[in-house]
């Protein structure tokens, strides 16, 4: 299926020169003068080699037909990260390279979008927001205004996040999985 280059997103699978690549990062550049371009960082599915491509934003790119559905994360071990299809109870193991930056967020029972090609996991997409607990944070410095200052904090899953001054250790917060940014205090 052909799509325009500017519509590519992280996790999409692209077919180029007879090989499949998973998109790691896609950025659109709109210079004041000249042609807008899309720069895409990709990893080869078969060989794992990373590459960067640049296309005009309106250029047609072949997007591979992959199976994308919701899977349940089970556990991780020396073999990799194990997922189960909730409809058929089939299980697959994804390598650490496929999971990548998503590894700290995975908790048993979590539902994730897993893309598979010929039965092999090739890309994972986390829920956009997840709730985590703040385990440690710096004390508030007197005189800081709440509107502009954030302080560093560590979460129970080992991810660093910047939080507002009123958030203390033990507080549950919602963070954006795409960029580890604070969204709001958890409602639970």
UniProtKB/TrEMBL annotation:
Pathway participation: Protein biosynthesis; polypeptide chain elongation
Keyword Transcription: no
This protein's UniProt keywords: Cytoplasm, Elongation factor, Protein biosynthesis
UniProt domain Elongation factor P C-terminal: residue ranges: 130-185
GO molecular function (one): translation elongation factor activity
InterPro entries for this protein: Elong-fact-P_C, NA-bd_OB-fold, Rib_uL2_dom2, Transl_elong_fac_P/YeiP, Transl_elong_KOW-like, Transl_elong_P/YeiP_cen, Transl_elong_P/YeiP_CS, Transl_elongation_fac_P
Statement: the UniProt record of this protein carries the keyword Magnesium: no
Record's subcellular location: Cytoplasm
Biological processes per GO annotation: peptide biosynthetic process
GO cellular component: cytosol
Described function: Involved in peptide bond synthesis. Stimulates efficient translation and peptide-bond synthesis on native or reconstituted 70S ribosomes in vitro. Probably functions indirectly by altering the affinity of the ribosome for aminoacyl-tRNA, thus increasing their reactivity as acceptors for peptidyl transferase.
Family stated for the protein in its record: Belongs to the elongation factor P family.
Protein name per UniProt: Elongation factor P
Organism: Allgaiera indica
